[in-house]
Structure formats: structure tokens, C-alpha cells
Amino acid sequence: MTEMSGADMVVQALVDLGVDTVFGYPGGAVLPIYDALFKHPTIKHILVRHEQAATHAAEGYARSTGKPGVVLVTSGPGATNAVTGITDALMDSIPMVVLTGQVSTALIGTDAFQECDTVGITRHCTKHNYLVMDPERLGPIMHEAFYIATHGRPGPVVIDIPKNVQVATGNYVIPEKIAHKSYRPQVEPDADAIAEAIALIAAAQRPVFYTGGGVINAGPDASAALRQLVSLTGAPITSTLMGLGAFPCDDPKWLGMLGMHGTYEANMAMNRADLIIAVGARFDDRVTGRLDAFAPEAKKIHIDIDRSSINKIVPIDVAVVADAGRALDALIAAWQDAGHKPRDLGEWWRRVDGWRATRCLDFPERKDDDADIMPQRAVKALFDATRGRDPIITTEVGQHQMWAAQHFGFSAPNRWLTSGGLGTMGYGFPAAVGAQIAHPGRLVICIAGEASLQMNIQEMGTVAQYRLPVKIFILNNEWMGMVRQWQELTYESRYSNSYSDSLPDFVKLADAYGWTGLRIDTLGQLEDGIRTMIETPGPVIVDCRVAQLANCFPMIPSGAAHTEMLLQPSDVTGTMDDEAKALV
Amino acid sequence: MKIKTEAGERHVLAVTVDNEAGILAKITGLFSARGYNIESLTVADISADHALSRITIVTSGPPAVIDQIIAQLDRLVPVHNVVDLADQGAHVEREIALVKVAGSGDKRIEALRMADVFRAKVVDTTLTSFIFEITGNSDKVDRFIALMRECGLVEVGRTGVVAIARGAEAV
Ligand SMILES: Cc1ncc(C[n+]2csc(CCOP(=O)(O)OP(=O)(O)O)c2C)c(N)n1
Ligand SMILES: [Mg+2]
Q1: Residue A180 covered by a domain
Q2: Which atom of ligand 1 lies nearest, measured to the CA of A423?
């Protein structure tokens, strides 16, 4: 116990908790904390250009390291600007602690300058939040907040700190044992549930693993355990957007991503399976398609750390509430103890291979040097050019995100950073900043759409300031392509407000910020352009012009079943009934 | 296209929470954000050190929704436990209403007679009004209030339901 100011306690707690980086933006209500940071050289503060970017950078940092991301913003507009990233972190289960300044306690509720009800506004977009009214509570709350953000299903925690609480002094107390009195997530799997699950897996004739971001959150060991279990059982495996990287894309058991823009083989396998083993995935509507047609013949095992995910959308036969890694370890041990051998799944694999033979990710293209670049080709070229460099890839939101998910291969966790649950345009670039800060020597590439990028493009200044070698690769189709695609499919091509008008000259913009900018116009320039991007030190923005009207296939249209995939443009009819239109 | 809704059954949930600022907003906000029903909600601090509150929620929904409500409540950080009293076998439910009736003559006499049948207490009276206090399950309170509407009802205040499982065990 030491007497110090609240602001010093905040910084001391960050040091004690092993925090090395804070993403933030100053303002009146956090000046005491900024002053305390000034005196603490061990914590690196990254000054962003917009608070939303601080939250996404913290997400990028967290997702690429497994450690919690930390954000510091001022009251009022600082806090409200952070709300999108906080919500994004909640939806994608990203550990994050956001410190917000607040007006002094005596002013709370008086509509004071830059006052907003931060705990009220963030109550439903945080895992938990606090308003600290007494500096003596700062120590325990800081430590508890990191515990809550990182234990159980990870998520964002907001600590709102009035300015007078930052200035006042008190004792800095580190709680002895940080076990919250009511928050005790169940981490260890129930042995009976594991036994039931193993019995189902051993008996299944058409099993498929369906895995998600929970495997990544459970740490690299969980991904390793997943590989082992898949190889022991011999079953095929697919994953959600958030789960990419947990299982190597070049393994023959890998079916690719499932869901709305998933592969034909992954969706058909889900539809025809007799057993689905869901691990750290939550049966999102983008994954299930029409619910009454979802996996009609399958029994379902669901491993999830969050009990509320179980039976939320799809009725489950065997529920295992546990950390994904622990549950996978237990399944492996139980499988081996029982002396199970993989069943002969030859018949099932023959069907899977039949679906694979549709080659659903193929796309039509011209091959001559002057040809327009198909966006899928650009992603494939990027993948080929970065093999062996173990890049970290972030994306914005839209068609380019889906093409990246389909055509860029991942073989290890924490390399793929994308906004899944909230689908936040403006996520990818700041997330790349956060990942690059955490991994200064790594190749970090943001695959962006020209529209999404503009949502946080101001962060070019941050990158310049910290000399980060971030690469932005824009798949510039001059459209909000995903919106245009839906308008084509659902609204008879009435392209209402989906054209990316008045785009900046991205190369000149690069120049303005002291970056390198380059433009790729034709297929013949693609490989060289990518090579130049990779080999150029420092930040590079690539304006890669791609075929403007390409659409992302395969696609399960809104309200359709896994078996009703559109595989190519000619499958599209261009109209949809109201029931389908109303589904998201 | 028309929007469809699903019918459900009534459940009484007893939720033990940390007695901290904002917890009620958190819980009611969860219900509104996820589209769950609240028929009634009562809350009061129940521990000697004022650290815990018990919230009694009457809700309705299909079984899967009730399961979700319980799981969603249970994962909130300040929530200690959630008990569906319907799962606990028999339980006792009580609600108090204060019912003000104004009038004179036959209606006034009728009101008093009915109050007697319902074992409602008179807690205030003037020459032209009564306030009755009635305690019972919600059904009984509903029925009493319905009858009072015929006898000059002018105002009602209800507490909402509190409930507890029968027998020696605590939830
Ligand atoms: C903040 C935000 N606003 C709106 C949307 C809806 N939306 C989804 S994709 C998209 C278009 C994205 O365009 P672009 O970044 O150019 O990507 P493309 O689809 O063309 O690859 C829009 C507007 C969103 N996801 N996020
Ligand atoms: Mg675009």
C-alpha cells in the first residue's frame, strides 16, 4: 500500500499488469493520467488520430498477441468515439480495457462540459464497466477489470474515472487474489459431457468439425489440440470467419470457411453431416443460413466458454461449457484412453470430394497483361507473394474481406484480424496499426476496400509518426461492392448510393503523409506491384484497381439454406420476396 | 409481410446480484435489448451488509427463450445466481397492492364487503374513500382490482411479485 494520486495509481496498475502499450488520445478529463504517463517511460503511448481507431488498434494488438488491448480516451466525445470499437470487441470477444476520463464527481449529472453518461452508454456494449468514485478503489478495479476482460469469454471493460478521482490521493491497493465474487467462468469441461461427446464422435459416420474464434481466443495450444483431434478422428473441418488460422489451410481435411460466403463443400458437409462438433463458434446467422434447414440430420456437440451461446440458436445434443483448449485436451485424452481408432470415413470423404470437385472458388478471368484484375486474383497473388513471410493480415468490411477469407490461406492462429460480429468498416487499417505496434518486425498488410478505408484513413498520420511499415492493399472497385452486390441480388440493380464517388488520389495521399504510394491497373502489373509493396521499407499504400462489377461467390442468399448456394453470377435472379428481404 | 410473435409460459426468476449502481439498468436493459418480456420486476437489498440484492422477475416466453434469459442473466458480471422458481417445485408468490376507491352509498358498502371477502385491509379512510391493502398472488390481486373497478376505483399501486421456494432449502 502506497499513497499516490489516482492518476499515478492508474499508471502503476498498468505497469503491474504488464501493459506495455496504450492507444489513446488526450483531453481535459484525462490530463492527470497523461501527466502520469509522461513520467513513466516503460509504457508506450500510441497517439492515434481518432478514438475509434484507438479501440480498433487495441483490438489488433490483442488479436495478434493474445494480450488485452488498452485504450485511454477523454470524457464526452472521446468516450462516444470509442463506442464502435468497444462494441466490435464485445461481438468478437476481444480482451480490451478502455480507460475513459469523466468530469469531476461533483459535476456528474449537471450536463457539464464534455460530460456524457459513459457507463450508461457503454453498459450494453461492454462485458462490464465501472465508474470509480473513490481513488482507493482504483487499484482493485484496475486489476479486476483486466481479470474480467481476459477470463472466460474475453471482452471489453470500461473504467470511467472522474477527473477529481485522478487528482485526489489514496492508497494503491493490489488485490491479493483476483477472483471476482460473482464472476467465475467455467473453464474445465464436465467429464460426463466429454464422455458423451466422445461416444458420439466415435459412432459418427459423417462427422464435421465446425470451429470459430473461441479456438483462437483459447491460445495457440488450443489450435494445436484441434489439429491433433482432427487427425485422430479423421473428420473434415470447416471454420467461421473468426476461426481462420486455427487449422492449416493446406491440410487435406480443411474444407475452407463455411456460411454465407463459405465453400460449397463446407456448407454441404454441414448440411449432410450426422454429427457437428462445434468448438468456440456460435451458430451466427451468417453461418447457419435458414435455420429450419440447418444441418437437419446432425447431432450437435457444442463446446463454448459461454453457456448462453448454447441452445441460443440451434438445439444442442451435448453441451460442453469450457475453455476450448481444455475441452479439446479432454476430448483427446478420452479418445486415446478409450483406445478409439478413426472410423472408416471413406464413404463420407468420397461425398466431400464430390462437392470439392465443383471448385466453387474458381472465377472467370482474362489472363492477358492488359486485362482487368479480378479481385480474387489480387488476393491470391498477395498470398503467393507473402508465403514464407508469415504475414499478419487485417481486412476492412465488404467483398474484399470475403475474398481475402476465401483466397488467402492461413496456417497459424493470430494472423487473421477481421471484424466479424459487428462488421465494422474502418476496423482493418487501425487494427493493422495495433498489430504492427505489437510485432514491429512482421509484415502486416491491411486488405482494404476503397470505401471502408476512408472511415479511418486519418490514421495514416499515426503510422507516419511512429514510422510503422504497415502496408495497405486496396482492392479498389470504386463501389461499396458488397452493397452493390446485394442491390443487384435483391433490388434489381437499383444502385442507390453505393458508388464510391469522388475518391481521393490514394497515391498523392500517400505522398502527403510521407508514405510510398503506388497504383496497379492491369494484371500485368500485379505481381511486380505486390513485390514493390513488400520490398519497400516503411508504410506503403497500394491502389490496386480491380474489376468493378465482380461479385463474391459462392453465396447463400439471405434466408436460403446451405444447399441453395449461388455458385456463379448466372445463378442470380435479381429479385427476392419480402420474407427474404427482411432477413439480415 | 406480417411480423409474427410466439406465445410462451410464465416463469418467476429469482436473481441474486451485487448491490451496485447501475445493476438494475443492466438487467432491464438486457431484457429490452434482447426482446424479452418483463411482466414485473422487484428489487431490494437483502443482506445484512447491504452487499446483495434480490431481484424477482416475472417473465414469459417459450422454454428455449426462458433458458436463454437465465443464461444471459447468469453471465452478467455482477450476477451471483439465477433461479427459475418453476424448476424448484412449489413456491410461494406474493404481491401487495394499495387500492383506492372513492364513492358513497351502495358502491362504498359493496367495496367494503368485497374487501372483506378478499381479506384486504382498510389502511386509510375518509367519508368518501377507502384505501385497501391486499396481499396475495397476482391472480388474486388482479381479481380484486377488477371488482373494485365496478366500485369506484380511482388509483392502484402494486409492488410486483416477490417469490420464494417452499421448504427448508435456500436457492
Ligand atoms: C461502419 C459501417 N457502415 C456501413 C456498413 C455496411 N457495409 C458493409 S460492406 C459496405 C461496402 C464496403 O465497401 P468497400 O470498403 O469498398 O468494400 P468492397 O465491398 O467494395 O470490397 C458497406 C457500406 C458497414 N459494414 N460498416
Ligand atoms: Mg469497394
Answers
A1: no
A2: 25
Answer whether residue A179 is part of any domain. no
The CATH-assigned architecture of domain B9-88 is: 2-Layer Sandwich (3.30)
Position B120 scores a pLDDT of 97
Tell me how far the alpha carbon of residue A489 lies from the centroid of ligand 1, in angstroms. 16
From the candidates A127, A163, A253, A380, give the one annotated as an active-site residue: A163
DSSP A262-310: S-HHHHHHHHH-SEEEEES----HHHH-SGGGSSTT-EEEEEES-GGGT
Domain extent, residue A230, equals: 191-356
When pLDDT is averaged across residues B43-54 and rounded to a whole number, the result is: 94
Contact B65, B36 (CB under 8 A): yes
Question: Is A553 annotated in the active site?
Answer: no
Fold of B91-164: Alpha-Beta Plaits (3.30.70)
| pLDDT confidence band for B3 (50 / 70 / 90) | confident
A412 vs A243: CA distance, rounded Å = 10
Model pLDDT, residue A572:
75
Q: Is the per-residue pLDDT at B166 higher than 80?
A: yes
Q: Does residue A551 lie in a domain region?
A: no
| Alpha carbon of A495 to ligand 2 centroid (Å) | 14
Cβ neighbours around A556 below 10 Å, total: 23
- Judged by its nearest atom, the ligand closest to the C-alpha of residue A425 is 1
Domain count, chain A: 3
Q: Which residues of A touch B27 (CB under 8 A)?
A: none
To the nearest whole Å, the CA of B23 is away from the closest chain A CA by 10
| B170, pLDDT greater than 90 | no
Half-sphere exposure of A550 (CA within 13 A, CB side): 27
pTM of the predicted model as reported, rounded to 2 decimal places = 0.95
Q: Mean pLDDT across chain A, nearest whole number?
A: 96
Which listed residue (A38, A113, A297, A508) is catalytic? Answer: A113
- Write out the three cell numbers for B76: 452478467
Alpha carbon nearest to ligand 1 atom 20, residue: A481
A309 and A447 housed in the same domain:
no
Q: Where are the domains of chain B?
A: 9-88, 91-164
Here the ipTM equals 0.89
Which of A247, A412, A413, A231 has its CA nearest to residue A332?
A231
CA distance A146 to chain B (A): 13
CB-based contact B75 A306, cutoff 8 Å: yes
Q: Do A307 and B74 touch (CB under 8 A)?
A: yes
Helix H or strand E encompassing B17: strand B9-18
Cross-chain Cβ contact A120/B22 below 8 Å: yes
Looking at the CA of A446, name the nearest ligand: 1
Query: Which of A480, A496, A551, A553 has most ligand 1 atoms within 8 Å of CB, for mutation?
Result: A480
Instruction: For residue A311, give the C-alpha cell.
Output: 441452445
- Is the pLDDT reported for residue B7 higher than 90? no
Contact A311 B64 (CB under 8 A): yes
Average pLDDT, chain B: 94
Which residues of chain A have a pLDDT value below 50?
A: none
Same domain, A162 and A18: yes
pLDDT given at position A574: 64
Q: Does the distance separating the beta carbons of B29 and A148 come in below 8 Å? A: no
Cα of A18 from ligand 2 centre, angstroms: 40
Per residue in B21-36, pLDDT (tens digit) is 899 999 999 999 999 9
Rounded Cα distance, A237 and A570, in Å: 29
Q: Whole-angstrom Cα distance, residue A201 to residue A264?
A: 23
Tell me, what's the pLDDT at A584? 60
CATH number at residue A199: 3.40.50.1220
